[in-house]
Amino acid sequence: MVTGARVRRDIWSLEDEQPWHPITRAYALAIVELQSRDPGMPSSWEYQAAIHGMPGGVQPDEFRGQCQHNTWFFLPWHRLYLHWFERLLRAAVAAHPDIPKETKDGWALPYWNYGAGGHSATLPEAFRVQTLPDDSSTENPLFVADRNAFVNQGEPLDPLATRAADALAQGAFAVGRPSGGFGGAATGWNHLNQDRNAEAGMLEQTPHGAVHMEVGGFMARFATAGLDPVFWMHHANIDRLWEVWLSQDGRTNPDPTSSWGTTAFHFHDEEGNPVSGAAAGVLDTATDLGYTYEDVGLPQSGLRRRRVQSEPPEHPAELVGATDEPIELTGGTSKVAFPVNPASGPAARVDGDHPERVYLTVEGIEGEDDPGVTYAVYVNLPDDDDPDQDPESFYAGNVSFFGIELVGAVDNDPAGHGLRRSFDITDLVENLREENNWDPGEMTVTFTPLRRGRGDTGARQGAGPPVKVGRIGLYFQ
Amino acid sequence: MSVAALRRISWRHPEGAAAGIAALAWALLLIPFAGGGGRGLHTAAHDAMPLAAGAAGWLVMATAMMLPATLPAARDLALGALWSRRQRTVAIFAAAYVGVWAAFGAVAYTVGQVRGAVPGISAATLLPAVLLLAALWELTAWKWRAVRSCHLITPLPPRGGKADAACVKAGLRYGWRCVAACWPLMLAMAIVGHSSLGLMALLTAVVVAEKLAARPGRLAFPVAAILAGAALTSMAG
Questions:
Q1: Structural domain for B112, as ranges
Q2: 3-state secondary structure of B149
C-alpha cells in the first residue's frame, strides 16, 4: 500500500463497528454542505449529479451530461467522476467544524459491498432514517424517499442483482459485439449508445445496472442518479470490482496508449477550476489518485462461479437463432422459444456443435421510462422448475434498463440505437449439455422479475411502462 | 495481402460488396472527365436517350453520394443476420434505400420540368437559392431529428420472407429518414446534375460526417456555414 493513501471502506464494515460511524456521519454533513450551495456552482450537489446526466440527455457543455455507458470508457470515466467528487467532499469534510480531526484526516468515500451476502445486501439504517442522529430537527441527507419501498424498509437486494461472479469471470476487458467483455466494447465518446459499436460490459450490466434499477427512484435514471447518496457508494463498489477483476491472473486493462487511455474527460476540482483526465492517468488508484480499498479479495459467494473465460477467438460471432417477433415485458414472467441453426460460418470450421463462445443477446430494447422491474433471464428453464431453487442451472444474466428513458429521444444528440444486452453463456450451455437440457435445434428463454415471490413484486408490477424487446438472439463464435 | 487475411476482412465487413458498388459509382461518374472517348460516350447517351440517361445518371449519383453513409447500418444488420443471409441482407437493405432516393429523383425531375417551363428561372439562379435553403435547413430541429432517427435500427427476424420483408422495410425507413435529413442537398444536385464533381464530393462529405458523428448536432453551424459559402461561390461563378 502506498504511504498516505486513504482507504475506502465498506459501509457495512463501518456501520457494524458503530451505527452512524464518524465516516458515515461526515459523509452526511458534507452532503448537507454541498446541498446548501447554489445549484449552478460546480461544487454543488445538483451540479455534481448533472455531470452524470441531464434531463433529456442534453450536454450543455463539456462538463454536464457526460456519463459514459455501454462503452469501454464506463469504468475510467466513473473513476474520474468519483475521484473529483471525493475531493470535493473531502474539502467539505475538512472545513466542517463539527467533524473531528481524526475523521477528517482519514476520510474517504465508503463503498457498498452489497454482494457480500447477509445484511450487506440491505441499505444501512443511516441511509433509511429521516433525521440525523444527534439532531432530530435536521433532515438526514442520506435518506431519499424516492427509492423502491423495500430498499428503504431494510430488505435485501436480490442476490442475482448484486452478483459479480459472471463479470469477474470474463477474461478480456473489451470485446466487440455481440459481447462487451468485462468492461465494455471499444467505442468513441458514448453517453448512452451514440456509437454504433456501443455494448455494455458484463460488470456494467450486473451488478451495476441491476443495482441502479433495484434501488430505483432517483437511482433509476441518468439525470437523477447522483442525487441519491447511495449512487456514490454503489459506484465506489463498481470501481472496487474493477480492482478485484485486475487482481486475477491474466487480467489486463486495454493499452493505455490507445484511445481508451488517452481520451480526455472534463470535470471541476474542489475550487471550481476546470480539470481534465484520461484513463491512462488513473490506473493505479494509490499512486495516481491516493486511495485504496479495504478489501479487493474475490467475493465469497454462495453461488457457483463460472469457469474463467479466456480471450475470445478472432473470428466474428454468427447468429444461429433468434425470435421472429418483438416481445413485450410487462412485469410478469415471459417465455419465448425459437429454432436454432447449426453454425455455418467460421464457428463451424472449429466445431459447429461446440463453439468456443456462446452469447445470448436481448436487442432492440425500447420503452418510455423505467419499467420498475429488472428481469432474470434463464435458458431452457423447464416449465415446472423454480429458478430460485437453483439459479445456477439455467441462469444467463439480468436485463435491467438503466438509461432506457433516453432511447429514441431524437430531440437531443444522445438519441441512439436501441438498447442491447448480451450475456456470455458459454459455460451455461456446456452445463445444459451435460445435464441433457440442451436442444441443438431449439432454445427457450424465460424472463422472470427479480425478488419474485417476496411480496413487493406485485406492488412494482405495472408501476412503470412496459418494455419492448425487438429480438432475442443466440450467437456462436 | 493473403487470401486468409482477405477472408477475415470479409467476415468482419459483409458490407464490402456495397462499398465496392459505391466506389464503382464514383468511377462511372469520373468517366466523362477521364479523357479519351468517355466524354463523347456520355454526351451521346444523353443526346440519344435523355430520359433514360438522366435517370441512370441520377441513380449512379445517388448511389455514389448516399450509399457510403449507409454502410455502417448495413453492416450492423448483416452482422446480426444468419451467416447465409449476410450478403442478402446488405443487398436488400441497400437496394430499398437507393430506391427511396430514386423516387426522390423522379419527383425532383418532375419539379425540374415544371421549373423549365417558367421563363427566367435557370439552374444558375436556382442553385445558390437551394444551397442557402440547405444551409438554413441545417439550423432547424427537423433536420437533426431526422439525422438522429437514422440511428434507430430495429433488429430483423432471422429467416425467410419475414426477414426479407423486414429488411425492405428497414431500408425504406432508413431511406425516408435520410431524405428528410438531406433533401436540400440532393435537390441542389438535381439542379446541377452529376457533372458537378466538386459539389458532389463536398455534399457527400457533409452527409457522411452528419450520419456517422456520435453527436451530429454539433455539426449544424459549421455545415451551415460551408453550405452558405458554397451558395455565395455559386452565385459569384
A1: 3-236
A2: helix
Closest CB to B79: pick one of A316, A415, A417.
Answer: A316
ipTM of this predicted complex?
0.89
- Measured between alpha carbons, how far is B54 from A303 in angstroms, rounded to an integer? 68
**A302 lies in a domain?**
no
Q: Which of A57, A70, A71 is nearest to A409 (CA)?
A: A57
Given a cut of 50, is residue A457 above it in pLDDT?
Answer: no
Q: What is the pTM of this model?
A: 0.91
Chain A residues within an 8 Å CB radius of B220:
none
| Contacts with A416 from chain B: Cβ below 8 Å | 151-152
Nearest to B79, CA basis, from A319, A53, A182 = A319
pLDDT at A348: 85
pLDDT tens per residue, range A165-190: 999 999 999 988 898 999 999 999 99
Is residue A122 within 8 Å of residue A112, measured between CB atoms? no
Task: Tell whether A110 and A222 lie within a shared domain.
Answer: yes
Which triple of cell numbers denotes residue A273? 477550476
C-alpha–C-alpha distance, residues A260 and A289, integer Å: 18
In total, how many domains does chain B have? 1
Q: Does A353 fall in a domain?
A: yes
**What ranges in A216-315 are assigned the alpha helix state H?**
229-246, 259-262
Check A321 against B158: CB less than 8 A apart.
Answer: yes
Q: Where are the alpha helices (DSSP H) in A96-154?
A: 101-106, 149-152
A345 and A405 share one domain: yes
The answer to whether the Cα torsion of A287, A289, A295, A296 is positive or negative is negative
Same domain, A280 and A322: no
B120, pLDDT greater than 80: no
Instruction: Give the range of the structural domain holding residue A95, as residue numbers without chain letter.
Output: 6-293
**How many domains is chain A partitioned into structurally?**
2
Of A278, A341, A276, give the one whose Cα is nearest residue A61. Answer: A276
Pairwise CB contact (< 8 Å): A413 & B158: no
| Bridge pairing between strands A291-293 and A6-8 | parallel
